[in-house]
Amino acid sequence: MNDDEITHQTDQPEVTSTPANMSPDHARGEGHRVDGRSDIFSLGIVLYQTLTDTKPFQGDVRDILFQEIIYQDPIHPCEIDQSIPPELARICLKSLSKTIHDRYASCELMVATGSGDKSAW
């Protein structure tokens, strides 16, 4: 059996990036929907970890991790650290939206959102 046959015999999405940084659309195996907004989600994970010093999704087994990414919202960053500016936490959580259309369409829009309040950065 070759790799193509193995891939087609499983219900798991093909993993082409770090599972802990995958967007819900990627974790669901919706490769046709993976675009720049999936990268925004991954950037949101990095931002969340930077702000809170913890991962937004804690699953240590791939299937559990994917379930958390797809269905669970992360703890609000301000609940972990009250010194995080609320606007920055809002930007982070919007980046981690489960619905692709609710995320920022680009990094430029993400940065522009926070540009009004320099203290958020």
Explain this structure.
By secondary structure, this protein is mostly helical. The chain has one domain (3-115): Orthogonal Bundle (Transferase(Phosphotransferase), domain 1). The protein has 7 helices and no strands. The protein has helices at residues 3-8, 24-27, 36-52, 62-71, 77-80, 86-95, 107-115. Mean pLDDT is 84; it is low at 1-10.
Low-confidence stretches: 1-10
Compressed to H and E, one letter per element, the order equals HHHHHHH
- Termini separation comes to 52 Å
Strand-residue fraction?
under 5%
Quote the average pLDDT.
84
What is the H level of CATH, i.e. the homologous superfamily? Transferase(Phosphotransferase) domain 1
CATH class placement: Mainly Alpha
Query: What is the correct CATH architecture?
Result: Orthogonal Bundle
Principal-axis shape: globular
Helix content: 40-55%
Reported for the largest beta sheet, the result is: none
Count the helices. How many?
A: 7
> Rg from C-alpha positions?
16 Å
Features:
Transferase(Phosphotransferase), domain 1; 0% strand; disordered N terminus
Please outline the helices and strands:
Blueprint: H1 3-8, H2 24-27, H3 36-52, H4 62-71, H5 77-80, H6 86-95, H7 107-115
Helix pairs in contact: 3-6
